[in-house]
Design brief:
Helix content is 37%, strand content 20%. Strands 1-2-3 form a three-stranded parallel beta sheet. It has a single domain, classed as NAD(P)-binding Rossmann-like Domain (Rossmann fold). It is α/β, with parallel strands linked by helices and 71 residues long.
Amino acid sequence: MTTHHSVLNKIAIIGCGYVGTAASRYWYQEQGHSVTVTTTRQERVAELEEIATRVVVMKGADSQDLKNLIY
């Protein structure tokens, strides 16, 4: 007999453009995972909050922001 356990995975998507948005929608809304997405534009935050657990506005080259994102 095989027992399946529900595991909540934490996923981070760096740069939530067309593909990242589709991936986040699938993992967050359809699979129930905790998804953090990043964007460089403040005006996208409200839109992305519909498809992610957390939205972070940052520049991809900022190593401290990246470190904070995954820890």
